[in-house]
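Much of our argument rests on the idea that a fold can be written as discrete symbols. This step matters because it turns folding into a mapping between discrete strings. The record that follows shows the chain in one-letter code together with its fold in token form.
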Amino acid sequence: MPIKIHPDQDALFLDIDGTLLDIAPSAEEVVMPKQLIKDLGALYGKLGGALALISGRTIADIDHLFKPLRLPCSGAQGAEWRLSPDSEIQSHKPLPSTIAQKITDAFGDIKGVRVEDKGYTVAVHYRQAVAQVEEIEEILTSVIKAIGAKEIVLVRGRKVVEVLRAGQNKGMALERFLKHEPFKGRRPAFLGDDDTDISAIGASLKNGGIAARVGRGKKADNAFASPDSVRAWLNVIVVGKAT
């Protein structure tokens, strides 16, 4: 197995798209295996509640996707968080609405590009326009510069570029969990797949933990070949054959 988990000592943090779930033509078309929901529910208990999802999706979207399972999670690239399944969602201040509108207007005539306003971030999906990624980033840079938006950065994910506040990232989300029970005092272990996960990989390693990159082995201790191999690994932990 790529990494070893000790359920009584570790806290597990998981990205969703490209890590737990296979990438689909659109975020709405991902396939959720029923076994994954069962295994995550069992893992939550086995880890004493020290299991959290850290995603670019909003928490509302996460809850809908994993229904009926509710877990501690952080959404919108760290902009919102829920420290336990039953606690209230907390969040940073949303981006000014003018940013999302200006970006939407800028991409109105570009085929294959979809703009998603998440409130705290603006995601520009280009799964149907991969060859235009450089043009997309140039347009985004121009829009941000034109409206004079300060402390705004672009982060490239898997066939998506997100516009968000500087300093708002998955690494901060992971470290926030580590300050609270049942995560506090445990060794963090993070699994992610793209550049939006680099900050969380770094945060996990900085805090004495481990990390794995799904599909690629760079900037993480280990690597999984695909989301399918991640799901198989999680199932092994659940059934207790190995950790």
